[in-house]
Amino acid sequence: MDLQKIKTLLDFVGRSRVSELTVSDADTTVVIRNPAREAAAKVDIPTSDGRELSTVKPVSLDDQPPTQLVRASTSGIVHHSNSPGAAPIVVVGDQVEVGQALCIVEAMKVFTTVSAPFAGVVKRIFFDDGQEVAFGDPLVEIG
After folding, report:
1. Per-residue pLDDT at 39
2. By three-state DSSP, how is residue 5 classified?
3. For 102, what's the count of Cα atoms within 13 Å in the CB-facing half-sphere?
4. Where is each Lipoyl-binding domain found (predicted)?
5. Which residue among 21, 35, 48, 55 sits deepest, i.e. has the most Cβ atoms within 10 Å of its Cβ?
6. CB atoms within 10 A of CB 100
7. β-strand partners of 115
């Protein structure tokens, strides 16, 4: 299992309601636990004798709203707007269409517009203006 796949899985568990994820690939098994979600998933059940039993409520992937990540296609400096001081191209809550610009990545004085590969609402923006990003880093979450 390659490092990028593990990073993607870590990102998924970190932003979802999943408390534990086990993935096997060839001869490698990765178990990712989110302690904050494990605690939130516990449910106290009162018994007839006044004691409380703690159990874990299973969380289904079907409970998650469908979202997709737009990732950096190149390493460079990411920009929110078309020019310094201008309004951001998109902000959280914006409805975007396929092909709509999301941000700009600058690499060696070449500016590449990152466009939405699918339509939806901008749920998260993972970068600050002027931040350096690497190939494959998440930029925007669209749901």
Report:
1. 47
2. helix
3. 33
4. 67-143
5. 21
6. 14
7. 101
pTM: 0.54
Length of the chain: 143
Whole-angstrom Cα distance, residue 28 to residue 11?
19
**Residue 143 tokens, joined:** 């749901």
Number of domains in the chain: 2
CATH number of the domain residue 76 falls in: 2.40.50.100
Strand partners, 107: 110
Tokens of 67: 């979202």
For residue 50, the model assigns a pLDDT of 57
Q: Report which secondary-structure segment, H or E, holds 76.
A: strand 76-79
Chain segment 33-76, per-residue pLDDT in tens: 766 554 444 444 555 555 555 444 444 444 445 678 999 888 99
Whether 141 contacts 67, CB under 8 Å: yes
Boundary (domain end) residue, out of 14, 39, 61:
61
Please give the single-letter amino acid code of residue 52: E
